[in-house]
Amino acid sequence: MDYAIIDYDPSYALQTVTMWRASKEQAIGQPAIHSVEDHVYFLNHILTNSNKVYLAIERSGKQVAGILACNENWVNQLYIHTQHQGKGIGKKLLDLAKQQSDGKLFLYTFEVNKKAQRFYERNGFRIVARGNENEEQLDDIKYAWTR
Q1: pLDDT tens digits for range 47-94
Q2: DSSP string covering the chain
Q3: For the residues of 14-53, what is the DSSP string, one character each?
Q4: Could you say which residues form the signal peptide (predicted)?
Q5: pTM
């Protein structure tokens, strides 16, 4: 399957949120805290205000395969559809965040998400802190990458 990276388009909001929630639940073993409607609002009105948001879309244009929300210093969201993981989409999106950064990026991932930890460490990120200040009340890891 071939993918295109596009700027976020609100016409994909519901599909993006559905994918995002399923991916996150699989990664952390915990259902979403917020309603789908609240999540769509967050995507369309909050996340897009302080981040550049990209979607990985199947070339057919029919399925959202991933989302990246980043700014010059942070990868704030990176989720890949459960059926499209392991196909290089995450790396393609992460490389885009690196290219647009000011040379240093930070991100958080949950400690229970071992797959994400391996992915980020393979892509040059190093642990800089640990904590648990998140609404899921799970331990998390802060990573940093420097060009």
Answers
A1: 999 999 999 999 887 899 999 999 999 999 999 999 999 999 999 999
A2: --EEEEE--GGGHHHHHHHHHHHHHHHHS---SS-HHHHHHIIIIIIHHHSEEEEEEETTSS-EEEEEEE-SSBEEEEEE-TTTTTSSHHHHHHHHHHHHSSSEEEEEEETT-HHHHHHHHHTT-EEEEEE--STT---EEEEEEE-
A3: HHHHHHHHHHHHHHHS---SS-HHHHHHIIIIIIHHHSEE
A4: none
A5: 0.94
